[in-house]
Amino acid sequence: MFQKNAERKKKGTDEQMIILLWLLLALLPWLLGAAVRTVICRDTSDVIHMTDAWITGALCCIGLAEVLHLLGTFGHLSLSRLTVLWYCCLAVLSLLSLVLVVWTWRRHGERFRILPQAGGNFVLPGLFLLLVLIQAVYVYCASAITAPGDIMVETLRSFQATDGIYQVNPLTGQTYEQGMSARYRILCLPTLYALIGASFPVDGRVLVQNLIPVVVLAGAYMAYYRLARLLFDDNLRKKYLLLILVAMVFWCGESFPWLDGYAALHGAWLGTSIRNLILLPYALSLGIERDLRRSWPCMFLCVLAEACICWTFNGLGMCLLLLAMMAALNKVGAWGFCRRLFSRILGSEEERP
Question: What is the pTM of this model?
């Protein structure tokens, strides 16, 4: 009896820790991102959306984890010391962000948009939220399918066991004989997961393969919502039709390892999945914006974040390639001949003087 009570109490404590972890992962990036976007978008008429703020704050958290990861890898600091630095940095940044956000909110509260705009039929938003909820439950409850060559859980546990960064080979438990590639050692996702799970009594496999994918899935829909908002402005029906289409694409592609649906529902903790699900649609939405003064800092964050979590060619990854292609297309589209050609194709030829 006492053993059953102890197990029931431990299970309840774990569930509380999981809920608290999700709350922190929802609120902390939003707070940091809202402060950053307040600084970037100084015009009082610019609206700071919750989705934009969360993604920006998540990119800032990846950048902070990368700095600490480099300190641990090349500065030989222990994981426990990095955890203390992680807490201190987040506490200071959160306090500064809270002051800035509260000050801005008191002066221009209309700039912050937490919920979508009012008005219209909410059947489509409700259907979309239902699909997302089902996917989140599926990702959290289903057994993860380990991707070929993925050793994220083993690397995380090796960090925790040795209290250091890349001290031993995660597969053998022995020290490295020939060393590691410097490019591979720069990737910070295992350290980020270790720092996140440092204060929560959650198994490393559950954290990586069940909890983090739910957060990544939510971030993916935030990125696609931002893209839909830029494409369709305030047309609620078209925006949520696009999001429902994305959700259905995820469901239809979850059986094929080379599709984003598989990455979203079976391997969202991987760096390539984060890049394909969040960074690329977010970078695409940034490239669509006309005002480069507001979008270039976040473009820079996207490129840096991909270099920190994915194996790229010396940091030159898909986000940089996408933004370069969009910049080239904008330059080509600005030529008079191309404008006339596009207007003829679209059936709206410019009036001749």
Answer: 0.88
